[in-house]
């Protein structure tokens, strides 16, 4: 974990309200793994106050990339920053994905911006053993990953409004896929809105397939000190009843968590 | 010949600190969490996460909400409990070359006493900080700290069961903090620290629900600094024991304001979340300030407020 000044090398719009940010983060990149995240300080002033957590979407030599969506004051400030400006970045943080063995096949299921950590994971998997499913609200929201080190990867797309790819939920594609033979060698990796994650967990549980999910949470420190990012753990898994997204995650095996306790209004 | 540096050492009654900078309980874990970035040994002292007799899971999420220039938290004193602390954390803390101060919290007066008693004889624990001011727990905590008699009784019970300097941490959520400060001074406290967080809330106008699952939480960060500073100013003038000041300290200038108001040492808390390097920046900043201003010993500016 390193807290370093990182120079912005690129900050460009790649889809509706969605940006690709590239940072010169020569110290952080050396140990960063797929599924890990960074905490970015948006301003040296006190407002907005807290750093923002962002999944790492890829590394190219000393450059670290993140994909973010402008949703509030913090990300609006981030989108206004220009190439050459510097921001303070802490990372790499958290536990990442357990990368599948070379003989395993991986199914990646992304919902919207949930694609961010999965892009980095996909870069580490042989394209022949990878099935990358991605759902978006509409065609204008679709993030093209081919320019992000995944030129040979074809996204299996779904859009809620039927404007591109298969119409409806991305989890329908997952379910169809799992009905086909050979599913026992699969591992599912997923990140996206809570409703989608719950569906992914339900489906993988039904088919008894291992599933790793990446979660998001409000957090203050990102390193396990503040204990602000607590989530309910499955009682069979951990008796302490709470896990912390920043340190125990952000990637969890789906069975580690108590999915019934999650409340939609909180997200 | 080594060049003479400004002397940053201060005293909190019997407790000697190499510099006035402490970490606030609950913001620096057990000193291990930020180890890649901050060496705890540079500190005047580390106040570890609030400790209870039994482990506490803490409050349901969401526990943290950002507010203008600050944050609300309702962690609920989640901690590993006394046994795990002694087994898992103490061996590491023993080896530190700084003052380890253990913040203790109980549901009842007896529990405070039992905790103090369990930590007796552990010479690497430099002092106890008694938390009678947490706003995020149902029993104990602030329920004691808003009542002068209960504050005094908790203080007496800890002193009776302890062989260490006892610091009592006060809540700002009271009508007149000086009454509580005097009560714990009269009960025998060696020092007072303040402030704990200010109680507050935030509402999501879309869902019309409180943003924190616990409804209310404790406000911290630079938003509370002026409040904290004035409370420190008042308490310093009300008691004759050393005062540790804190609340929204982000940089060395903030730290200096508290020292000038009369605090003998300061606590850095929420700033660590945003900028872990703030701890070393503040210590270096104080040293540079002393050098620039021709101050040989920082203790000479404590309470040196021109009124």
Question: If you had to describe this structure to a student in words, what would you say it looks like?
Answer:
The complex is a heterodimer of chains A (267) and B (307). Chain A has 267 residues and is an alpha/beta fold. Chain A folds into three domains: 2-93, Beta Barrel (Elongation Factor Tu (Ef-tu), domain 3); 97-213, Rossmann fold; 215-267, Ribbon (Dihydroorotate dehydrogenase B (pyrk subunit), domain 3), CATH 2.10.240.10. Chain A has four helices and 16 strands. In chain A, a hairpin with a 2-residue loop joins strand 1 (2-15) and strand 2 (18-24). The mean pLDDT of chain A is 92. Chain B is an alpha/beta fold. Chain B is 31% helix and 21% strand. Chain B has nine helices and 16 strands. In chain B, the strands form four sheets. Chain B has an eight-stranded parallel barrel with strand order 3-4-7-8-9-10-15-16, surrounded by seven helices. Chain B has a four-stranded antiparallel β-sheet with strand order 5-6-14-11, with no helix packed on it. Classes of the chains: A alpha/beta (267), B alpha/beta (307). The A-B interface holds A 1-3, 41, 46-51, 88, 90, 217-221, 223-232, 240-242, 265-266 and B 26-29, 33-34, 36-37, 55, 57-58, 60-71, 73, 75, 78, 204, 207, 209, 213, 221-222, 250, 270, 272-277.
Q: Which structural traits does this protein have?
A:
heterodimer; A: 267 residues; alpha/beta; Elongation Factor Tu (Ef-tu), domain 3; Rossmann fold; Dihydroorotate dehydrogenase B (pyrk subunit), domain 3; 7-stranded antiparallel sheet; 7-stranded mixed sheet; 4 helices; 16 strands; globular; B: 307 residues; TIM Barrel; 8-stranded parallel beta barrel; 4-stranded antiparallel sheet; 9 helices
């Amino acid at each position: 974990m390193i807290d370093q000044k990182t120079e912005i090398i690129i900050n460009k719009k790649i889809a509706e309200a969605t940006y690709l940010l590239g940072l010169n983060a020569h110290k952080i990149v050396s140990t960063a793994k797929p599924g890990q995240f960074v905490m970015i300080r948006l301003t040296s002033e006190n407002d907005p106050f807290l750093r923002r957590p962002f999944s790492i979407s890829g590394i190219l030599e000393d450059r670290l990339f993140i994909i973010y969506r402008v949703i509030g004051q913090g990300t609006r400030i981030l989108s206004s920053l220009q190439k050459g400006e510097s921001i303070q970045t802490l990372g790499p943080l958290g536990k990442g994905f357990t990368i599948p063995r070379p003989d395993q096949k991986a199914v990646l299921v992304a919902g919207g911006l949930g694609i961010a950590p999965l892009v980095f994971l996909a870069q580490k998997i042989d394209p022949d053993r990878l099935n990358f499913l991605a759902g978006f609200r509409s065609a204008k929201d679709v993030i093209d990953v081919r320019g992000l080190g995944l030129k040979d990867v074809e996204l299996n797309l779904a859009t809620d409004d039927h404007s591109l790819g298969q119409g409806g939920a991305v989890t329908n594609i997952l379910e169809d896929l799992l009905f086909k033979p050979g599913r026992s060698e699969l591992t599912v990796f997923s990140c996206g809105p809570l409703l989608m994650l719950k569906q992914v967990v339900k489906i993988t549980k039904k088919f008894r397939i291992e599933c790793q999910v990446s979660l998001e949470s409000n957090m203050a420190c990102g390193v396990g000190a503040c204990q602000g990012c607590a989530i309910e753990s499955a009682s069979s898994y951990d008796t302490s009843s709470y896990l912390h997204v920043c340190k125990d995650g952000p990637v969890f095996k789906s069975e580690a968590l108590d999915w019934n306790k999650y409340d939609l209004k909180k997200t | 010949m080594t060049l003479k540096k400004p002397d940053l050492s201060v005293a909190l009654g019997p407790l000697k600190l190499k510099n006035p900078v402490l970490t606030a309980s609950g913001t620096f874990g057990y000193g291990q969490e930020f180890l890649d970035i901050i060496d705890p040994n540079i500190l005047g002292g580390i106040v570890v996460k609030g400790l209870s007799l039994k482990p506490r899971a803490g409050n349901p999420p969401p526990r943290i909400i950002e507010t203008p220039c600050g944050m609300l938290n309702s962690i609920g004193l989640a901690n590993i409990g006394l046994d795990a602390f002694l087994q898992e954390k103490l061996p590491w803390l023993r080896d530190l070359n700084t003052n380890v101060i253990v913040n203790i919290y109980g549901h009842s007066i007896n529990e405070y006493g039992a905790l103090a008693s369990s930590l007796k004889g552990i010479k690497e624990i430099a002092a106890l900080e008694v938390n009678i001011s947490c706003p995020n727990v149902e029993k104990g905590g602030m329920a004691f700290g808003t009542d002068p008699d209960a504050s005094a009784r908790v203080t007496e019970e800890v002193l009776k069961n302890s062989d260490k300097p006892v610091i009592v941490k006060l809540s700002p959520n009271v009508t007149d903090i000086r009454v509580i400060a005097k009560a714990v001074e009269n009960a025998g406290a060696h020092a007072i620290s303040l402030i704990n967080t200010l109680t507050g809330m935030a509402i999501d106008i879309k869902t019309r629900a409180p943003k924190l699952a616990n409804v209310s939480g404790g406000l911290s960060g630079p938003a509370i600094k002026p409040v904290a500073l004035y409370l420190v100013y008042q308490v310093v003038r009300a008691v004759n024991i050393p005062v540790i000041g804190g609340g929204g300290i982000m940089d060395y200038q903030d730290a200096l304001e508290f020292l000038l108001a009369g605090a003998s040492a300061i606590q850095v808390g929420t700033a660590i979340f945003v900028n872990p390097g703030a701890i070393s920046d503040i210590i270096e900043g104080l040293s540079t300030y002393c050098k620039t201003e021709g101050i040989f010993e920082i203790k000479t500016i404590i309470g040196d407020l021109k009124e």
